[in-house]
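Sample entry follows:

:::
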Amino acid sequence: MDFDAIPKNIRIPFFAAEFSNVRAFSGLQNQRYKTLIIGQMLPTGNAEALKPYRISMKHDAVQRFGAGSMLAEQVEVYRDIDTVTEIIAVAVPDSAAAIAATAGIAITGLASSSGVVYCYINGSQCRRLRARFRPMSAPR
């Protein structure tokens, strides 16, 4: 075994250690990272279903998968956190047998004061609520 700093002609027992960084990697890592995001697209998007697309900007996702689509929102949130990693997005279309979900919120009781009610679902404010007010009868 050859050493760089330990002489070869030492004939007495001893212990020596030598560290060499000759084969050590130096500089920036050259491994490329990629992120795969899979989600639903809207019919307003122009992407082909189940085909991978390289997405570099948020507006690319909106154009390809439709504004407000699950996939466009996922890309937007990811880009807010990580601006440099390459994103590969795959759009999954809605099933032809799918039925759009509907829900309702009922606020009952008599108001004690005037004010504004804000509605948040999953951390997002609902801005397009249609309110249908029914007059309530006075308590007896």
User: Anything to note?
Assistant: Strands lie at 34-40, 52-55, 86-92, 120-121, 124-125. Residues 34-92 form one domain.
